[in-house]
Automatic annotation (TrEMBL):
It comes from the Eukaryota. SUPFAM superfamilies: Anticodon-binding domain of a subclass of class I aminoacyl-tRNA synthetases (SSF47323), GST C-terminal domain-like (SSF47616), Methionyl-tRNA synthetase (MetRS), Zn-domain (SSF57770), Nucleotidylyl transferase (SSF52374), S15/NS1 RNA-binding domain (SSF47060). Belongs to the class-I aminoacyl-tRNA synthetase family. Keywords: Aminoacyl-tRNA synthetase, ATP-binding, Cytoplasm, Ligase, Nucleotide-binding, Protein biosynthesis, RNA-binding. SMART domains: WHEP-TRS. This is Methionine--tRNA ligase, cytoplasmic. The keyword Ligase applies. It catalyses: tRNA(Met) + L-methionine + ATP = L-methionyl-tRNA(Met) + AMP + diphosphate. Residues 831-887, 900-956 form the WHEP-TRS domain.
Amino acid sequence: MVVIYSNINNLSTLKLLISSYFGKHDVTLEIVRCTDAKLLETDRLPALSVADTLLFIPNTAAHYLFPPKSFDEKQVNEWLDWESSLLSPSIAWTLGTSTKNVQIKNTLITCLSTLDSTVSSTKKFIVGKEISVVDIIIWSTLQPLYKNENLMVEYLFKLNNLLGWLLQLEKLSQFQDASKAYKIEPGNVPYQVLLSSSKYLNISETSFNVEVEKSSPQHVSEVPSEQEIAAAKKAWNEGGKKLPLPKKNIIPVLPIKGEKNILITSALPYVNNVPHLGNIIGCVLSGDVFARFCRLCNYNTLYICGTDEYGTATETKALEEGITPQQICDKYFQIHNSIYRWFNIGFDHFGRTTTPEQTKITQKIFLELNQNGFMHIESVEQLLCEKCNRYLADRFVEGGCPHPGCNYEDARGDQCDSCGKLVNASELKNPRCKVCGTRPIMKQSEQFFLDLPKLEPLLYHWMESTSNGWSNNARVIAKSWMKEGLKPRCITRDLKWGVPVPLDGYWDKVFYVWFDAPIGYISITERYTKEWEKWWKPAADAPVTLYQFMAKDNVPFHSVMFPASLLGLNQGYVTVSHIMATEYLNYEDGKFSKSRGVGVFGNDAQNTGIPSDVWRFYLLYVRPESQDSSFSWNDLATKNNSELLNNLGNFVNRAQVFAEKFFGGVVPNMILNEDDYILLALCNRELREYIKAVEKSKLRDGIRHILSISRHGNQYMQASEPWVLVKGGDQEKERAKTVVGVCCNITCLLSVLLLPYMPDTSRTIRKQLNASDASCILSPENPEITNLLASGHKLGKPSPLFNKIELSRVEELKKQFAGKQVTKSDTPTKDVSALEAAVTQQAEKVRVLKSSGVAKTVWQPEVDILIDLKKQLESAKKSSTNVLNDVGKTMNNGATSAEEIAVIQENVDKQALHVRNLKSSGAPKSEWQPQVTILLELKAKLAFATGVSATPTGKNKK
């Protein structure tokens, strides 16, 4: 029997009740007075009595009632420590006392922002994919604040992710039952009780600051210390150390003795299709931002990429389009190149793998590995598609994953996308040809294998010494492969399109793409400069650090296969120090699909009218660094309108317009006081964190620090009110000059920090400021703001930086890129228009294949597919009318499922709350009116689902 002893209005009691319901305990709640609690041999409430043991620390008791899963244990404990040492003390002291300590309040605000960003990235729960004791404890701590409208407006305003998470949990039966069984008064009273009845929060205000610093250094107050203010003052007045001029653009870039030489590569995009937004952020855009940052820091930097052009996929695409593989490569190379140019991807050289240099280096590496004893020949069974009359490359065989415990049915012949493990095509269950769908046959063929077991000890020690610089997912993926033990890996195939194997008796074979493609980094560098060995075989006095950017599916080839090959050569090749791998970017609620027209592809972005810098900003803002994220049109518009237009753009434009209007377009005289140095200290803090984040390739964090600086600037200008001061006496006018001058200097800093992320915007701001190149440099060793634009500096002409993205335009774009998805889970009447498009596309494919003169065995499977599609279309046309009638009856009868109605209702509640917050905050109508429109649309949807009118008749809508 479990008993909870509590007094009234004790929010920690909710933690225990909800945890007991999830843990399925038989629990009794007894209310006692604090004075009677001593009879329980404790003066702390609530207390949990279980098995003759009394637990009086709420988080420990909740953990006992609803223990986490073993794999979540560490993360759960970290969050519980954070809640007890930061969130609870800061909220109790801020709302439970009359003392108004700004530092503690700012810590609370930081905690809430942390939760908002956390639930934004996890989408549902704080730890893992299921509810845990962490969700229960944090929800209970915030419940009195969240249920009080005034406190909610003050503390949760604009924290929409956190509000949505609170609403989501509140709807769960366990939370509702606990709230009914134990009612808590909304507002400050529960936090007063929290302080008076819980000794674990019995700390003084002076010790609180120490506690915050110990427990979580990343959650610091927005009030700078005296040391930070003094440092900001010194840097501003003394100018800090003189920065060098940016490096001159010398071609080719070569390693320099005594300097920091950085070599950057992006995973080579495959040439047979147009890259979508997920491809762009996963590789080339991330690499570009880091390369621009390195140049900003005056590091000697080379950024290399190119198209991966060999393999069966290219041959198949060539057959589809009726041209040669080389023509396919030429066509799509230009498409990729133009897309990356539009996105302002600043490669030093963008090359390709169908070059003489690629053939020469690949064959040379193979021969030397073979000579060193790291190659051997095995007779292997290969899959031959008799219909297509060709051996199938691994990626063109699909089937069931052979690994125990994984039942994924669409594993590829080289890797399973579900469990992430390597797969041999011959091991797939029920294999099928990806092109025609028929079952291939097995045929013996001699192939070369890279003897990875021989290289494993060398690779293991190398990985142990270098993997600390990798992203976490890259480290986990690579070490999981090593843990399982490496096996010999086949590196040749019986194909035609590729680099030939340079040995007698094997010239009819080519190297497999995973062996060949990473060597492309080297051959593309040789294409760039004949002194390529200075980068790839660097001298001891000019070492090179290699950074490689990719999506997580490319990690095995860059962390195991390619390094093993280079280590096996024993020729001093540079190996990767930093693998920076992203997770996947999804499109809205699904995946990108070129064939179904779902999602935005690189060439589409140019036609939306949205500038490339806005695309770059948003993709980097949602960069999937630790887990999958999603592109959302609504979120893109929101981020553009709030962060770019209202925050960054507003600050930059206000300062310059004010200088032009009142001070003749020059930076006015500045006499700084304590408030100004506090602002500079806050910006210096963000500057330091920006540098730390980007140096570790935490690009998403870097852009948030930029926005924090502009937010500090907006708050400073709003509090200083220079538009009022300029109309006052001489002292007030001098103060207005200082405020505007300081804001112009912060704007100049922002133009520098924006350069890696939004290069066009950065250049525009610098032109408006008339800023010289001498200020466009960062010093990682001395990250402080100096007087970049001195008094008297002549400014350029200001103009707005960003345009608003209207809701109506968002809806147009959502429809334009929604596509027509036809899946197995659709209604029996598949979308007629989608099938018509598929028939047209397949008919064209058949026509091209037949006219190309290829054998019947190649085009006959495509004819079979066309016939099947036509049958589906005929069936769909017959049944579509009946299905639409059934749907209409269902909707008219109000027969939408209870689950669907609940989801719609939840969205209505969340949006209504958002509108109420916006209106009560005093935001202009232009900001809240679009949100009202969204709310009305949601209400109409709810009314249609339930059969209840959404809007009352008559003029008095209220």
